Amino acid sequence: MTITTLSSREFNQGASEAKRAANNGPVFITDRGRPAHVLMSFEDYQRLTKQRRNIADALAMPGIADIEFVPPRVTIKSQPVDFT
After folding, report:
1. pTM over cut 0.70
2. What is the pLDDT of residue 69?
3. Of 16, 24, 17, which Cα lies nearest the Cα of 43?
4. What is the SS3 string spanning 28-84?
5. Buried b (16+ CB within 10 A) or exposed e, 41-51
6. What letter does residue 2 receive in the DSSP assignment?
7. Predicted pLDDT of residue 58
8. In angstroms, rounded to a whole number, what is the distance separating the alpha carbons of residues 80 and 26?
9. Are the beta carbons of 24 and 1 closer than 8 angstroms?
């Protein structure tokens, strides 16, 4: 994977080159020397986003059924309130 960095001006003048570079890795586009945007191939975008389609998928733990977990029983006793 190759990371390419272009200024906004370079990106505006050479969008075709930026698209070709995005096929080899992310293209960072800077504004005044600071990273502002990232251009990537649609395939890379899909790979990044399909891993977590929704909160349930993000929190899912594959293979969790194979882990035995028996939490200990806890007894909670109330105590009188101290108003002093």
Report:
1. no
2. 77
3. 24
4. EEEECCEEEEEECCHHHHHHHHCCCCCHHHHHCCCCHHHCCCCCCCCCCCCCCCCCC
5. beebeeeeeee
6. -
7. 64
8. 62
9. yes
Alpha-carbon dihedral sign for residues 10, 29, 20, 15: negative
pLDDT number for residue 53: 62
pLDDT in tens, 30-84: 999 999 999 999 988 888 877 556 677 667 767 667 778 788 899 988 888 888 7
Q: What is the DSSP string of 24-41?
A: TS-EEEEETTEEEEEE--
Which amino acid appears at position 16 of this protein?
Answer: S
- Token code pair at residue 79: 């105590």
Instruction: Give yes or no for a contact between 62 and 43, defined as CB atoms under 8 angstroms apart.
Output: no
Residue 34 and residue 32: Cα distance in Å, rounded? Answer: 6
Cα dihedral sign, 65-66-67-68: positive
Q: How far is 47 from 30, CA to CA, in rounded Å?
A: 24
pLDDT at 79: 87
